[in-house]
Structure prediction request, 234 residues.
Amino acid sequence: MALAEDCERQRIATVAVTQLPSHFQMAIRHIGEMRFVRPALGFHPLAVAGNEGELSLFLSLLPDVQFVGEVGLDSSREGASTRTEQLRIFRAIAAELAGKRKLITLHSRGAEEVVADVLHQSGVTECIFHWFSGGTKALKAVIEKGHFFSINTAMVTTQKGRSLLSLVPRDRILTETDGPYVKIGGRPAKPSDVKNVLSGIADVWGTSDENVEAQVAENFTQLCQSLGIPRIGP
Prediction:
């Protein structure tokens, strides 16, 4: 709650993703009326175990939300035991998203091409791949399908992340902090730390932080307009 209030005070436009639809319901109760923070309806693939029954809640809440995330697949060692359940749930979610105008944030670790294929089969476009960590082939496939990428500090400080960033069209780039999972100076990243992401992107692009900020703001505005979603803020 304190972090959301800080975003409101600093007027930082923030999409706050959730791991389960029941968590989204709690977020709506506490921060649903804020102007600069928007809770997103999520069903994180690593939260599937023991929570399969929340799919019906997710689907019942979906018609009334504009922001969705995180949803997707995780094929890392951590998600190996629930891959079948993850895919079943993600396919059901993608089918319901077909033809809907939602801003969608995706988890795709180790399953980037599968996530893109499921979306394509369901006719879901203009999603945001958060913390993309796949290879060049998968990256190009996602770009070709018209999706966006949100960049965090972990991505701009590794050789692989910077290399992938250099291949993404500049009008497909957005920013994220992914706190509390990403750490900055030993503490969880928070939305105000996005300035570090802007600096990292500027270094890769060979331009100023101000130019990157303007580009990212334009990208987000254009995406929201394309989806028919009102801008965050006043």
Observations:
- The first strand starts at residue 14 and ends at 16.
